[in-house]
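[Discussion] Sanity-checking designs against the backbone

I'm trying to build intuition for which residues belong where. Below is a structure token string of 144 positions. I'd appreciate it if someone posts a full sequence so I can compare it with mine line by line.
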């Protein structure tokens, strides 16, 4: 959270809020002994979506820190959105690389070729592993 500019005091409060969290597993009507929860966020916590989003953004930044893979996007901000001829001009046209799109806990990776997509997936999978995340292959789709 400090990488995103969160004050130290806020980080301490969030840590203290999650310290000492325990869970039990319920199986066949029997509850297990309580065990400590050392990662994740509390179920139903109003901070959970924001904390997850920050962590996921940090993971993506780590995964693609030296990568230019993505879809190049040219745009202007002068209010002439649908005038495609204006995008041909050299002046006032900005470019960015659209590498990923996030919504809640879903992520799309964008690439210009199959090879770039494979390279992106390899980096993404390694970063997920480093951050303790799992890719749900049943919900994963590749479109080209």
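Best answer:
Here's mine. Compare freely.
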């Amino acid at each position: 959270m400090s990488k995103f500019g969160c004050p130290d005091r806020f980080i301490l409060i969030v840590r203290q809020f999650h310290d000492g969290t325990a869970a039990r597993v319920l199986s066949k009507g029997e509850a297990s002994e309580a065990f400590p929860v050392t990662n994740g966020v509390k179920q139903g916590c109003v901070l959970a979506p924001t904390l997850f989003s920050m962590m996921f953004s940090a993971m993506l930044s780590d995964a693609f820190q030296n990568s230019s893979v993505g879809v190049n996007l040219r745009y202007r901000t002068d209010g002439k959105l649908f005038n495609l001829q204006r995008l041909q001009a050299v002046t006032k046209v900005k470019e960015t690389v659209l590498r990923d799109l996030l919504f809640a806990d879903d992520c799309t990776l964008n690439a210009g070729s199959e090879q770039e997509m494979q390279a992106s997936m390899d980096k993404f999978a390694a970063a997920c592993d480093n951050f303790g995340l799992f890719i749900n292959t049943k919900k994963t789709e590749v479109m080209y």
